[in-house]
Amino acid sequence: MLNVGVLGAGHLGKIHLRLLNQSEKYNLVGFYDANEENAKRIEAELGYTYFSTIEALIDAVDVVDIVTPTLSHFDCARQAIAKGKHIFIEKPITNTVEEAETLRALVAEKGVKGQVGHVERFNPAFIAVKDMLDKPMFIESHRLAEFNPRGTDVPVVLDLMIHDIDAILSVVKSQVKHVSASGVSVISDTPDIANARIEFVNGCVANLTASRISLKNMRKTRFFQRDAYISVDFLEKKCEVVKMKDAPENPGDFDMILQNAEGIKKQIYFDNPEISENNAILDELESFAEAINNNTKPVVTLHDGTEALRVATMIINQF
Questions:
Q1: In the CATH hierarchy, which top-level class contains the domain 121-243+271-278+312-316?
Q2: What's the CATH number for 2-112?
């Protein structure tokens, strides 16, 4: 088992603490939180060991799980890497692309592993269809959330949209060519609703909308590609796959047949991939343990996290 410590015991940090404590791949050594009063309350109520300094916690573990506010990601990760520790770091990887690039260089220099917490990669609905996503050419994504003061210290692009940016970059095997975007600040000092259009070199276009001032929650992405439409509902953990193939010469009474202007006939059929229930956060943490133990590439590398941040930054710079 890998000895692990958590930096940051806020809302998400407490979830990480609970899951790491129950994981068979980790031994939870303890945690650090900048709010001493909060930290001592958690220690008393939940029994996790509180370390009074970041340095003491880093020295005591093999893996550092960084769940602090984004502004401190870089400093926390840099300290851990300098001590030769593996790092799991919540999204977004850092506050700036330059910081992310520095972390990538430090990890390579020290020979340790790093993974970024883009949890939607572990969403069972996305996992169920990922292998079917063969060169999507148009993508439409909506990530809408009801207002929550937590997270409003960063633009909605870094708070919400970055989930979809990472998922899209993981399936579109092409460089980003152009980004255009607009955003509006309604309640916060930073944009609360944003729309972005990402154009790729291979001709794929992704249209993304994110809002944290909606009346209902929605997390849905639709992928359109040659002879297929694939929809992923990240919130409900459901997917829909509609495919087309050449129509048979003698279709059955219940076959769905389309004929275009050129007279070409296609048969429409539905594919319902099996979706396995999981805990995505636990899976991402345990996948990192497997990458360390087996010396394999993490599912979401620091490079992936950097590229998602790079595109997010390009979007924010349009506002």
A1: alpha beta
A2: 3.40.50.720
In angstroms, the CA 175 to CA 201 distance is 6
| pLDDT tens for each residue of 154-182 | 789 999 999 999 999 999 999 999 999 99
pLDDT of residue 230: 98
Q: Give tens-digit pLDDT for 198-254.
A: 999 999 999 999 999 999 999 999 999 998 999 999 999 999 999 987 878 777 767
Q: Where are the domains of the chain?
A: 2-112, 121-243+271-278+312-316
71-100 pLDDT, tens digit per residue, is: 999 999 999 999 999 999 999 999 999 999
pLDDT at 291: 98
